[in-house]
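Review this fold:
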Amino acid sequence: MEHEVFVPVPAEALRATLTDPARVVRCVPGLQRDADAEAGPLTGRLKVRVGGNTITYRGALRVVERDGAITYEGEGTEARGKGSAELSLTVVLTPVAEGTSLSFTGALTAVGRLADATDEARSTAGVRLLDKFVEAVAALAEEPEALEEATDDDGVDDGVEEPARTAAFDVPVPPPSLDPLLDEDFADSPIEFPAPQPAAEAAHARRTMIGRSAEEVDHAPPRGRYAPVPAPEATSAGATLRWIAPAAALALASAVVVGRALRRRR
């Protein structure tokens, strides 16, 4: 397959990124690096979506520089299945106006699920994979570290302008012009606090502002159906005498009348 992409990034910055395995592994979409510390930086799993299927390969990739061109050679086996694939992809960088032209030439040998896919599906998957790869490489090459590596050892820049760096703490910060207390001396001006109000005046002020104080609300008895039933009043000796005296008088008068009636009959 053949593919060509234009990138608005200098060629030296792109070359420094494309030849560094630690950076390449960050740019390959769908690549999951192997957790083994002894394994190479381009060793792990690669997920490739071809047509409506997703194929996962376990393998490794190598970076080789030949005659100014960069070649990626890799092989892998299917994580689920007996298929395998071998890839050889060569990248040629050509400086052009305002950027670099990247030309890709690749050859693929596959057995298994990838071989069963159509030529159109494989071509579409390859172009999509390369476009995402170039986009990630361009973004990584524009970082400050990559731009610094594009400078030669003699200190002459290769046309890559380093972004201007300003020291934020070296610039004096003017005072705010809208501060009304800017010219006042707080050390010589005492701070006056309002005199505390008496408790009675404060309570009256609260009742005046909010109607009833919190203490009055808390201690007010409930009204309506939830009002408590008043307890029966305790009877005193005076109240007992007030209803016993008329009854005794009535009983005494009745006894006198009955006694007189009995005498008359005798």
In short: The CA atoms of residues 5 and 102 lie 5 Å apart. The mean pLDDT is 75. The first strand starts at residue 2 and ends at 7.
